[in-house]
Amino acid sequence: MQRIQESELIINKRGAVYHLDLRPEELADTIITVGDPDRVAAVSKHFDRIEHKCNHREFISHTGYMGKKRLTVISTGIGPDNIDIVLNELDALVNIDLATRTIKPELTPLNIIRVGTSGALQADIPTDSYVVSTHGLGIDNLLNFYRYEENDEEKQLLQSFVTQTQLNHRISQPYICGSSAHLIKHFVNNFHHGITVTCPGFYGPQGRILRLGLSNPQLIDRLTQFTFGPHRITNFEMETSGIYGLGKLLGHHCLSISAIVANRVTKQFSKDSQAAIEQLIRKTLDIISSW
């Protein structure tokens, strides 16, 4: 088995992966990711006990138990670049022998669930509601650096997306990946379902205008109007497609769930976004702990 060199996988002096500062025994097989480091404690306060805490850069992690269910909650920070770090290092913790720097002969799949916030792109999805992403559609280019190929239906959907939104290749080469059927079946009642678009930024890439003009000023309208068979775009944010794409390539089960804090069609913003996020955390933990 080929050895992974020190420059390619950085392991610190305590035997932990560099950015997350976690060792294999400090990670549970079921992981909740949150963007905001402060939200880690908002999740772990519901644990019955916490066995490990770690804080390195924007990556904070707590591992503990709800009943007999062992869970890790970890902050990713914002954006697909951070997702590249988090997904690869989570995978390394379970599927690479850090002592020998070789890939293990038997691979371990993780359950990775993003609990975050998002902006709705449909008028009938109100603020303070919840969206489960059936697909992550990336206009961030992350997965284009890896060997990934969509199936025939996904290729047709992407072609229709490019045609309808008039996104040119100078901006993005979009990609798409579906959620885990293993996980999404648990999140049906009282959740909206649809395609989530992942953007590489918060302002221009999401159609916001402050002082700079946009190369595609009709982006919001075109995303809202997009349809392909039964599919429509429900929301956008900055992490889902990277989680879905890398998760699929690495063999993990991934799901993204968003609290809608803004509706970009009706121009409304949540009057109490923290309450909406807290309720989503509770709903998600209740479902996970019942597995």
Descriptive overview:
It catalyses: uridine + phosphate = alpha-D-ribose 1-phosphate + uracil. GO terms for molecular function: purine-nucleoside phosphorylase activity; uridine phosphorylase activity. It is a single chain. This protein is an alpha/beta fold. It has one domain (24-289): 3-Layer(aba) Sandwich (Rossmann fold). 26% of the residues lie in helices and 29% in strands. It has helices at residues 39-44, 80-95, 152-165, 181-184, 219-225, 240-250, 273-289; strands at 30-34, 49-56, 59-66, 69-75, 96-97, 102-103, 111-120, 130-138, 175-178, 192-198, 227-228, 231-237, 253-263, 268-269. The strands form two sheets. Strands 7-12-10-8-13 form a five-stranded mixed beta barrel. Strands 5-6 form a two-stranded antiparallel sheet. Helix 2 (80-95) packs parallel to helix 6 (240-250). The longest helix is centred in the C-terminal third of the chain and has 17 residues, at 273-289. The mean pLDDT is 96.
